[in-house]
Design a protein that fits this description.
Strands 3-2-1-4-7-12-11-8-9-10 form a ten-stranded mixed β-sheet, sandwiched between helices. The chain has 29 helices and twelve strands. The longest helix is centred in the N-terminal third of the chain and has 35 residues. The chain is an alpha/beta fold and 731 residues long. The protein has three domains: 418 residues, Na+/H+ antiporter like fold (Up-down Bundle); 143 residues, Rossmann fold, CATH 3.40.50.620; 127 residues, Rossmann fold (3-Layer(aba) Sandwich).
Length: 731
C-alpha cells in the first residue's frame, strides 16, 4: 500500500523535485511513514512483538537499507537529502522526541518504585553500572575512524555506555501486561527497575549533552550540569508538582474551550523542556519530568489521557521512529569489520545488562527464577535507545555507522526479549501472600471508591454538615481525591460581606475534610500508608440546581450532601437537598446524621449496619461502609432481608453475604452477617440495627422517576422511622 501511495504521488513529487522545500513532498513523507509504520506495527503485534518495532523497521525499509537499494531514484524522490526539505520533517521528529518522553513520563509510577523497595533499586542500578562500564570501555577501544571526533573520545564513550545500559520501559510494560504479571511482585519489580533505568538514563543523557556543548570535560562544566539537574529535579518534584496540578485543574475547571487540558499539558511540557535547555542540559529531561508530574495529577481523567496518547501514538511516534530507521543504513553491515563490531556491541550490551540485572536481583532479595526473569526483561532497549542514539547523532557525538549499529542492537535485543521473558515468567510460582494481594487488587479494580477521582461536597455550617464532611474526608483518603467544598447558604452570594463570612465557614469544612482524611490514613496498615496530599478548594453557593450543574461540568466522581434541614416532611427530603441532587447526574452520597452524630458529628462513635441484596448499588454501599469502618475501627453487620415466604433461596443469601464478608477481609475489616425474614425491609433493618446497637445505617439505592427526590419505599420508611443516622449511596 505504501508503494502504491508513492506510485500515485509520483508525478506530483517529480514536478516538485528540485524546487527547494516542498509541501507536497512533506505530506508524502508523512503519509508514507504513518501508513508503513501502522501496517508493520500491526504485523508486529500479531506475532507478539511491540508495535514500535514495526515503526522502526518501516523506516529501515523506506531508507537506504531496502527501498534505496531497489529503487534509489524513487527513494531519493520522496526522501530527498536537501537540507531545506529534511528540516521540515526533522521538526516533526524533534517534537516527537519530546512528546514520546512526555508519554513515557506519564507512564512512570514513582509509587511503584517506592513499593517495590530495594529489589528494583539494586536491580536497576547494577543493570546500569555494569553495561555502562562496558560501553565506556568499548568506546575507548574503538578504532579512531569509527568516532566522529577522536580527540573527544570520552563523549562518544559516555553515549555508548548510556545506549547499552538503559532498558525500554514501554517494551517491558507491554510484555509484563500481556502476561498478566503487571500486579505480580516480580512484574512490579521488573517494571519499577525499568522506570528507574529510564529516569537515570535521561539524567545521564542531559549531563552528557552539557559536556558535549562545552566541547571538553572540566570540573566546572560537570558541576554545573550535575547541580543544575539536581536543583531542577528537586524543584520539579516539590513546587513543580503543585504548580502542574493547579495548571491542569485551572484548564479543566475554568476554560470552556475544547481540549483545554491537552493544551495545558503541552504548554507545561514545553516550558519544562525550555527550562532544562536554559540550565544547560537536554530538553528531553524536561519533557520526561513533565510527563511524571502530569501523570500524577489527581484529576487527569482517563478520557484526556487517551486523547493525548492517541495523538502521540498515531502521528508523532511513527514519524519519529520511521525517520530513525531512515537514518540507519544497514548496508554498512556488508563490511565485515562493521558487522563483527555490531555483533560484539550486541553481545556486550546483552551480557552486561543481563549480568548486572541478575546480580542486582540477587542483592535485592529475589529468587534465582525471579532474577532470571528480571534480567531477561531488562535486556530490551527498544524505543529508549533509538531516542538516545538520535540525540547523540544530532549533537555529533555519534557517527552514522555507530548510530546504525545502536539501532540494530535495539531491534535485535527488543525482539529477543518478549519470548525469553514470557518463558521466564511462566516458571515463577505464586506465593500465598501474593495471591491475597492480587485478589484484593482485583476487587478494587471493579469497585466504586477506587475508581473515583474527585469529590464534590455540598454542606452548610450545621452539625450535619460537619458529619457529611467527616464522611467526605474518609472517602477522599482512600485515593487522595481532590475535593471541592460547596458551602450552601441562604444569603445573597452577590453580597461581598456574605460571601466573605460564608467562605470562612467553607474553609472550616475543608479543614474538617483534611483532618479526618489524615486520621483515616493513620488507621491503615503500615505498608498502605502514604504521605497524604489532598487538595481541597472552597466556593459559596445557594442551594440551586443550576449552581450544582455548572460546577458538576468540571468533572466529579460523586457528590456528598449534608445540610441542617434534610427532611421536609416525615418521609421526604427537603427541597434544598432535592435541588442539589437534581443538578448532579453522577453518584450521590446523602448523609443524615441523627442522635449522637448531631451532638458529636466529628468524634462520635460509629457502628454500622449495611443492608445488602446482591445488586451493584448495595455493593457500593458496602464499600462506603468498609471505608468508614476501617477509618473508625467500627463494627459492621451486613444484613440480608429475605422475603417472608418459605420459598427463598438460602444458597443465594449465603453467596451475597459471603461476597461482602470477603470484601471486608481484603481491607482487614471484620464484617458480621445476618439474615432476617420479613415482608417489610425497613422493619427488618430498624429491628436489626436496634438489636445490635448500630447507630449508622448505610444503604445503597437508586433514584426513582418523578418530580420529588425519591429513593423508593424502603428509603422513605427509614427516613420516617429510623433513630439511627442514615447514609444513602445513590446510583
Amino acid at each position: 500500500m505504501a508503494g502504491a501511495l508513492m506510485f500515485a504521488a509520483g508525478p506530483a513529487l517529480a514536478a516538485e523535485g528540485g524546487k527547494g522545500p516542498s509541501e507536497v513532498i512533506f505530506i508524502a513523507q508523512l503519509a508514507a511513514l504513518m501508513l508503513t509504520g501502522r501496517l508493520l506495527g500491526e504485523a508486529m503485534l500479531r506475532i507478539g512483538q511491540p508495535a514500535v518495532m514495526g515503526q522502526l523497521i518501516a523506516g529501515l525499509l523506506l531508507g537506504p537499507s531496502f527501498f534505496g537499494l531497489l529503487a534509489p531514484d524513487w527513494q531519493h524522490l520522496i526522501f530527498p537529502r536537501t537540507p531545506e526539505q529534511k528540516a521540515m520533517i526533522d521538526g516533526i521528529s524533534q517534537a516527537g522526541i519530546l512528546l514520546l518522553l512526555l508519554l513515557t513520563g506519564m507512564e512512570t509510577d514513582l509509587q511503584l518504585v517506592r513499593k517495590t523497595g530495594r529489589a528494583s533499586v539494586y536491580a536497576s542500578l547494577m543493570g546500569i553500572v555494569v553495561p555502562f562500564g562496558c560501553g565506556v570501555a568499548l568506546g575507548y577501544f574503538m578504532p579512531a575512524d569509527m568516532l566522529p571526533h577522536p580527540d573527544h573520545r570520552l563523549i562518544t564513550s559516555l553515549f555508548l555506555g548510556t545506549a547499552l545500559s538503559i532498558a525500554s520501559v514501554k517494551i517491558v510494560a507491554m510484555v509484563v501486561r500481556e502476561m498478566n504479571f503487571m500486579r505480580r511482585t516480580v512484574g512490579q519489580v521488573i517494571l519499577a527497575s525499568a522506570i528507574i533505568d529510564d529516569s537515570v538514563g535521561w539524567i545521564i543523557v542531559s549531563i552528557i549533552f552539557s559536556l558535549a556543548l562545552h566541547g571538553e570535560v572540566d570540573a566546572l562544566s560537570i558541576a554545573q550540569s550535575v547541580v543544575g539537574t539536581f536543583v531542577f529535579m528537586v524543584v520539579s518534584l516539590t513546587i513543580g508538582r503543585r504548580l502542574v496540578f493547579y495548571a491542569i485543574r485551572f484548564a479543566n475547571d475554568v476554560l470552556v474551550s475544547e481540549y483545554a487540558v491537552i493544551t495545558a499539558i503541552l504548554v507545561i511540557m514545553s516550558v519544562m523542556a525550555l527550562t532544562t535547555h536554559l540550565i544547560g542540559v537536554h530538553s528531553v529531561l524536561g519533557a520526561f519530568v513533565a510527563g511524571i508530574l502530569v501523570g500524577e495529577s489527581p484529576i487527569l481523567t482517563k478520557h484526556i489521557d487517551e486523547q493525548l496518547r492517541g495523538l502521540i501514538t498515531a502521528f508523532f511516534a511513527p514519524v519519529f521512529f520511521g525517520l530513525a530507521g531512515l537514518s540507519a543504513d544497514l548496508t554498512i553491515l556488508a563490511n565485515p569489520e562493521i558487522l563483527w563490531s555490531t555483533i560484539g556491541l550486541i553481545l556486550i550490551a546483552s551480557i552486561g545488562k543481563f549480568g548486572g540485572a541478575f546480580v542486582g536481583a540477587e542483592l535485592g532479595g529475589l529468587t534465582k527464577r525471579e532474577g532470571f526473569a528480571l534480567a531477561c526483561g531488562m535486556n530490551a532497549r527498544g524505543s529508549t535507545e533509538v531516542i538516545i542514539a538520535s540525540v547523540g547523532l544530532s549533537m555529533g557525538a555519534l557517527t552514522q555507522n555507530l548510530f546504525t549499529m545502536i539501532v540494530a542492537m535495539a531491534v535485535i535485543t527488543t525482539m529477543a526479549m518478549p519470548p525469553t521473558l514470557r518463558w521466564a515468567l511462566s516458571r515463577i510460582p505464586m506465593s500465598k501472600d501474593e495471591k491475597q494481594r492480587l485478589d484484593r487488587e482485583e476487587l478494587e479494580e471493579k469497585g466504586f471508591l477506587p475508581n473515583l477521582e474527585r469529590l464534590l461536597l455540598a454542606v452548610d455550617d450545621s452539625t450535619n454538615g460537619t458529619f457529611a464532611s467527616r464522611i467526605a474526608g474518609i472517602i477522599a483518603a482512600t485515593r487522595e481525591m481532590p475535593t471541592t467544598v460547596m458551602h450552601i447558604t441562604d444569603g445573597n452570594v452577590d453580597d461581598k460581606k456574605v460571601v466573605k463570612a460564608e467562605t470562612a465557614k467553607a474553609k472550616d469544612a475543608a479543614s474538617t475534610v483534611i483532618e479526618v482524611a489524615e486520621r483515616a490514613e493513620h488507621t491503615k496498615a503500615a505498608e498502605d500508608q502514604t504521605k497524604l496530599e489532598i487538595e481541597v478548594e472552597t466556593l459559596v453557593q445557594q442551594p440551586s440546581t443550576e449552581a450544582v450543574a455548572e460546577e458538576a461540568e468540571k468533572g466529579y466522581g460523586a457528590m456528598i450532601v449534608g445540610l441542617d434541614k434534610m427532611i421536609a416532611r416525615k418521609n421526604q427530603f427537603h427541597d434544598d437537598v432535592a435541588n442539589l441532587a437534581a443538578g448532579f447526574e453522577g453518584p450521590l452520597i446523602i448523609a443524615d446524621g441523627r442522635d449522637e452524630h448531631r451532638k458529636h458529628p466529628l468524634h462520635g462513635t460509629i457502628s454500622i449496619l449495611v443492608p445488602v441484596n446482591g445488586t451493584e448499588v448495595s455493593r457500593r454501599a458496602a464499600e462506603v461502609a468498609i471505608a468508614i469502618a476501617r477509618a473508625n475501627r467500627a463494627p459492621v453487620t451486613a444484613l440480608y432481608v429475605a422475603p417472608g415466604n418459605k420459598g427463598r433461596s438460602r444458597r443465594n443469601e449465603e453467596a451475597i453475604l459471603k461476597e461482602i464478608v470477603a470484601l471486608g477481609e481484603t481491607y482487614a475489616v471484620d464484617i458480621r452477617s445476618a439474615v432476617r425474614a420479613s415482608d417489610a425491609a425497613d422493619v427488618a433493618i430498624v429491628k436489626e440495627a436496634a438489636r445490635r446497637k448500630h447507630n449508622l445505617i448505610i444503604m445503597g439505592t437508586a433514584r426513582r422517576p418523578g418530580e420529588k427526590l425519591n429513593f423508593g419505599d424502603t428509603a422513605a420508611a427509614l427516613l420516617e422511622k429510623s433513630s439511627q443516622s442514615l447514609v444513602f449511596v445513590v446510583s
